[in-house]
Amino acid sequence: MERIKTLETRDLCESAKKGGCGECQTSCQSACKTSCGVANQQCENKAE
Amino acid sequence: MLHQYKLNGFNIVLDTCSGAVHSVDEVAYDIIEMYQSHTREEIVNAMLEKYADREDVTREDLNLCIDDVESLKKAGKLFTPDTFEDIAGTFKERSGNVIKALCLHVAHTCNLNCSYCFASQGKYHGDRALMSFETGKRALDFLIENSGTRTNLEVDFFGGEPLMNWDVVKKLIEYGRSVEKEKHKNFRFTVTTNGMLIDDDVIDFCNREVSNVVLSLDGRKEIHDRLRVDYQGKGSYDTIVPKFQKFVEARGDKGYYMRGTFTHANPDFTKDVFHMADLGFTELSMEPVVGKPTDPSSLTPEDIEIVKEQYEILAKDMLRREQEGKPITFYHYMLDLTSGPCIYKRISGCGSGTEYMAVTPWGDLYPCHQFVGEEEYKLGNIWDGVTNNEKREEFRSCNAYAREECKDCWAKLYCSGGCAANAFHASGSIRGIYEPGCELFKKRIECAIMMRVCEDSWK
Question: Do A38 and B84 touch (CB under 8 A)?
Fold first, then answer.
């Protein structure tokens, strides 16, 4: 029986090859202003 | 590195370096836990013993599950080795001295007198001041000049209370719009406000020109009015809530956040989040107060435990609302597993002190809004640029791998090593850590990922 379900996710190792365009939002600017969470930002890399 | 946890009936396995997320049953959960340190035979025998009463747990089935684990490992989705550490320090260097975001302190003054304000009622421990148009214009020019090839430039009008300098804010946005095309830039403006001065002009202009507004509301009236008072000590709730409702209703699908702070008075902050939802707001953010442990409003170690439970309550309730077709958004639970940030962003963090800076009303540059007033952290000014290169390099060296305490932490690629300002205020160094913040952050990420796993199970 299937005991493992793998969710669709962005492969971080792959993203090292084409990432880093720097166009995504500065995380702190959008709402929190008092903590550093980057995981909730959207990728804006149009070249990928 | 793996992180395994159980939450809301789900068994979750994160492969932190690939970013893979697995929802597994309890047998696979145990197998994965044993996999790296036991032989296949040892694992099978241990599982047969543990699940002796389960008909579905057979030797054959267990071997198939171990095969699956092996396949996932080969595919780079389980036990992915950490290959980022050696290159982590080079990521920020690639950007050179590019600056892409400014927090403009257009008003170091405020019409509220909130005792917990990290900006000491907008003054940042200095004099009251308003930014002139000329200074603001120079700040926007400075940003354009230093933004290299970046297209998206972010400018947050902040304070104090920025609407106390509204005419200048409007003129600066108009100026930004007038030059962005020829400069091949795209300004994204944000206004963060306590709401007291919102009127039709603010609503119309912001809904046309400002991509995101952050509206400060702490939730329930008795909680909000306890700290968010005017100079006569009168609570602001009754004044601002109708204004916020009108503002948000007129905003359509443009971005906004209701943004609250919770303190020792309300570690049960979900009541405040739900109160905001009851008022008709759907885009919500609620942050733990940042302060010295001696401040009466600071969260105690007991509060931290309550808050962690509250994060679980919030996640479960949000899933319920989603199923009922009335979803709300909580800033920290927005986690897009397929289109989220690349490893560069995950390692580099918010960019404070390098890509992101704060500008005071008189044009001085600081690493971020939370450092304004800390003289040793002044980086330079918008006319001469960054002159304190030593401090800029200190910020450049901050990343997910820069702190010894983060070395074995599964969450470092979600927080990038944490907020430099929180670390500075807690430990005296931007290379330190703010441990209560870490604890809460990890809980939030666990909840956010659990929500994605739960949503996936509905498919």
Answer: no
